[in-house]
Every structure is written in C-alpha cells, then in structure tokens.
Specification:
This protein has about 90 residues and is of the alpha+beta class. About 45% of the residues lie in helices and about 15% in strands. It contains 3 helices and 2 strands; from the N terminus they run αββαα. Strands 1-2 form a two-stranded antiparallel ribbon.
Length: about 90
C-alpha cells in the first residue's frame, strides 16, 4: 500500500506544474525508525494535490471542461490510492 502511495505522489509531482503538499512533520512518530521504508509517508498530515493554473482564456472557453478533466485525470492516482486504502476501511 505504501509503495502505491509513494508512486502516486511521485507520479503527480513529476508532471509539469503539478505538486503535492501536506508534508508537515519534520520527524517520524516516536517508535518508528527514521530509516523505515515508509518513513517519508509518515511526514504527511494530509495529501493535497494541486494542478497548474488554467488560463483565463481557457476558463472562458468551451475547452474548460476538457482542461479541467485532464487535470483531474493527472491527479487521479492519488485519489485512487485513497479510495483503495483509506476510504474503503
């Protein structure tokens, strides 16, 4: 599960203009080794995916729906991971 989350986050972050935020902790929780293979994920208090801004010209055109859908599809791996491992529990 953690490998899928890491892959989803890295996949979105690799896209031009996209970013993932929510890493608020500086250290892993007490009792977890700092070099644990999932330590990086434990630094997040939430997952917030952001897409690049949509131009005003696109926002005022019929292309808005297609552009917004492309952004949602690009960020979908994070939502799919959440659906599979968090929401389903």
């Amino acid at each position: 599960a953690a490998d899928e989350a890491t892959a989803a986050i890295q996949g979105v972050e690799a896209l031009d203009g996209f970013r993932v935020e929510g890493k608020t902790y500086k250290r892993v929780p007490r009792g977890v080794e700092p070099d644990h293979r999932n330590a990086e994920l434990l630094l997040y208090s939430g997952l917030h995916a952001f897409s690049p801004s949509i131009s005003i010209d696109t926002a005022l055109s019929p292309d808005l729906v297609d552009e917004a859908m492309a952004h949602f599809e690009a960020m979908a791996p994070i939502e799919q991971w959440l659906e599979k491992w968090v929401y389903a529990q």
